[in-house]
Amino acid sequence: MIRVLSVGSVSPEHGGKTRGGVARFHSALIKSWIKHPELGIEVVAVAALNSDENSDPITGVPYLQNRKGNSSQRMISIIEESNPDCIIFHHISNAWAASIEVMENLPTTIGFAHSWLYCREENDPRYPTNLNRAKKSLSKLNHLLFLSKHCRDEMYEFIENPKCDISIIPPPLSQLSANNKSIRIHSSRNLQRIVYLGNLLSHKNPMPLVKSMQHLNDVELILIGSGKEESSIKRYIIENKLSDVVKIENDLTDSQISEYFNSADAFCLPSQYEAFGLVYLEALDHGLPLIGYGPSLDTIETEMGIKCGFPLTEYTPEVIASTIFKCLNYDWDRETLQKRVREVFNPYSISKRFAELIKEIHICKE
């Protein structure tokens, strides 16, 4: 067994105070490793960076982030207390990961670069803080992990030649629901339904998606989310008399989101950037074909070995509308979409791949 200390945010179900794909990924891995000791990973402790809890309310794993001092002092204390064989950092650009720059005699150390979005000046109000932290982390990492090939390739804009080895591990399918339905529930409605799930932020392009509805007939759009674009989207809906075909929902439970997915015909997240796009897997888990960020769809289709949707190469309302039209008129086998995503991206399969990689990295370091 390899003793693992894992550092990163955790999902609300596991005591976290915030939501996000990294938190869900982190918690799913921990839960799977504990449930399957045959994988050879013993999670001895977690530094749950978005939690005030002292342990995971579901698995009982100790949470050791509540220590005195700065990030470096707390990290040293946690390492001494947990005595791990391996440390895994989720996000190499946070202060906890950067603190290892000054440490010696570290155990096997692995870092995830989940995204480079906040290493860019236009996205980081404290630029270049996060980028400098990532560079400090890289000075001591034995191995660097990415969720996708395109996220790995993006690194070379910032880091010319990292000294550590690099691998790609995709995230597991989120535990959004116990959904077992893959046939759409249309009830008595006459409109085909597109669903969007994500923050209403400019780089995710919710406004061009709303505007695309003016170029489509007999199609309605459900936007699930909130964010800076919400007020302008609401004004546009009213001013352009789209209230009958565009609706915004937020503060929904997982089961309510699942119901919307089950009643939809396709999922559209027209982002101009996604490090991976975990929500695409959640849509496929409901048998929904995808319209979205091309590199993410390419990654998912490569893993699954089947066509899953239509990528966007432009983000104008006209192009989004024409892509939606093509997707809605394509002959999808939705049961196969659901079945295949569960085979490839289930937590056990991903946690097994990760466990095997950890063991390989640890042996090489020794």
Provide structural commentary.
37% of the residues lie in helices and 17% in strands. The protein is α/β, with parallel strands linked by helices and 366 residues long. β3 (86-90), α3 and β4 (108-112) form a beta-alpha-beta unit. α6 (206-212) packs parallel to α7. 47% of the residues are buried.
Give the key terms.
single chain, about 375 residues, alpha/beta, Rossmann fold, six-stranded parallel beta sheet
Overall, the morphology is globular
| Total domains | 2
Order of helices and strands: EHEHEHEHEHEEHEHEHEHEHEHHH
What value does the average pLDDT take?
93
Separate helix tally: 13
The share of residues in extended strands comes to 15-25%
**CATH topology tier name of the largest domain:** Rossmann fold
Give the full name of the CATH homologous superfamily of the largest domain: Glycogen Phosphorylase B
Whole-Å distance between the termini? Answer: 15 Å
